[in-house]
Amino acid sequence: MEMFKPFGFDKGLALVTIALLAVGFIMVFSSSGVLAEQKYNQPMHFLIQQIIGALGGLLLAIFILSIRRPFYQSPVAAYGLVGLSAILLAACFVMPTVARVNRWVILGGIRFQPSELAKISLVLYFAYYLEKKRSRLHEWKTLVLPVAIMGVFALLILKEPDFGTAFLICAIGGAMLYIGGARLLHLGFLAAGAGALFAIYLFSASYRVERITGFVSTQKDIMGRDFQPYQAKLAIGSGGLLGVSLGESTQKLDYLPYAHTDFIYAILGEEFGLLGTLTILVLFIIVLWRGLFVASRAPTVAGQLTALGLTLVLTVQALLNITVVLGLGPAKGVPLPLVSFGRSSLVCSLVSVGILLNISERRGIERHVR
């Protein structure tokens, strides 16, 4: 049994989310103003779009926060969102290609990236399924359905192509299977299969191979394949301890591609220095801490797994983005949650936080038998 406590949500998680949103607004405007002026004759274009996405995400989060029933434990939510995500991912391939990729569904002038929704739907489905089948997770046949769904998602996302998101989805799914109680032997076979799939996909395109070889090679081609990582590290290094001050970045002046999206952390490092980058890192550590705390206090197994999965989605994605910017991993095209420009990512990140806060409003009740 559980009790719903309105306004009893985790205040620490809510505050750190607002802080990351505020940093995101500042950095999106700073890193994209010049580009927006060149493309749209409006330096605030990307900031306005980011604010619109934030308002939509906050409204959804507030709505989710007010729901008294644990909707995330419902089969309608679990299977419905998985089905919707699969349909939208498939629909990407009949939409106009944007920048030579098929990652978006475009309807009525609104562009949405279904892979962001797929992260949430997979977590909700896995949490629901693993609770229902927890006594039979040692059997192979029990894992067939969730692994098949995860595999379909990964294949569709790889086809877009989006290697980083597909890898993230498989990593989160594997972690939830392990925590849910699946046998290590079975997970080992699944990891080997996933590794083979990603290896085949990796070596099927020369540019992906060049990213890996460029990352491991001691001889860097800073005017070719290693240009973007080099410029990112140059931005971080130029910031020093306190940065060159807000708005004074030079790397955003057409030197660092995707400065307002995948590499916004580099511009933040240039303008706010080591102090700024460490502050963002600490904020995401707090998200991890509060998310794990919410998971530990959730009154049901499904609630615990949902909170854990969504926390991992936010923090592992942040870790992947930061490692790429710092040159600790090859480029993956993964945005920094709540900070990078991108309405789909922002809305879905806020929805994830809304679900976490909803779970934190629930308390277990002991039933006393006389």
In N-to-C order, the SSE pattern is: EHHHEEHHHHHHHHHE
Task: Let me know the average pLDDT.
Answer: 89
Distance between the termini: 17 Å
Largest sheet: 2 strands, antiparallel
Supply the number of structural domains: 1
- The total count of helices amounts to 12
Number of strands: 4
Strand arrangement across the biggest beta sheet = 1-4
- What percent of residues adopt helix (DSSP H or I)? 55-70%
Structural class: mainly alpha
Shape: globular
Low-pLDDT residue spans: 366-370
- Quaternary structure of the protein: single chain
Which percent band covers the strand fraction? under 5%
Q: Could you tell me the radius of gyration in angstroms?
A: 21 Å
Task: Give structural attributes.
370 residues; mainly alpha; two-stranded antiparallel ribbon; 12 helices; disordered C terminus
